[in-house]
Structures are given as structure tokens and as C-alpha cells.
Amino acid sequence: MNGNHQPQQELQHIAERVAHLETAIDYQGQAISRLREEMLAGFVRTDAGFVRTDVGFLRVDANFTRVDANFTRVDAEFARVHAEFVRVHEQLTKIRTVDFRILLSICLSTALGTMSLVVKLFGLL
Fold first, then answer.
1. Low-confidence residues of the chain, pLDDT below 70?
2. Measured between alpha carbons, how far apart are the two ends of the chain, in Å?
């Protein structure tokens, strides 16, 4: 009787262990399912983050385009101002040349007039 009872206890013990293993496998399957769901949710959040980043890059690109347009406009304005400065500089150079000629002619006229008076004075003496 004891010999018959032993294999039955072993079968019962094996059945309990199989039940424990099946429960552990179920828990492991549930954990893997939850992990898979969390990973998928994480991927969805990451994808959404990438979309937001892409939108941000598009905005930054649009801002750079606008800034480039502004720099082009400023460069054109600087070129216009530079051309105006060159024109004014040329006019000032012409005015200085004319002023120098006028002053030189006045000085020469005055010098010649003075020399003429000196010669006349020496001629009268």
C-alpha cells in the first residue's frame, strides 16, 4: 500500500508543480503583454515627439528663410547707402578742387596786385 501511495503522491506533486509552472507562464505572458503595450505606447509617444520635432524644424527653417530675406534686403540697403556715400564723396572732392582753384586764383590775384603796387611805388620814388 505504501508502494502504491508513493507514485500517486509523486504524480500529485508533479501535477502541482505543473500547475505552478502554468501559473508562472501565465503571469510571464501577462507581463510580456503589458511590456509590449508599454513599448508600443512608448514608440507612439516617441513618434509623436519626432513629429513635433519635425514641425519645429520646419518652423526654424521658415525663420531662417525669413532671416535670409531680411539679410538680403539689408545688404541691398547697404549697397544703396554705399553708392550714396561714393556720390557725396565725389561731389565733395569736386567742391574742394573748385574751392582750391578759387582760393589759388584769389591768392595769385592778391599777390600780383600787391607786386603791381610795390612796382608802382618804386617807380614813383
1. 1-4
2. 177
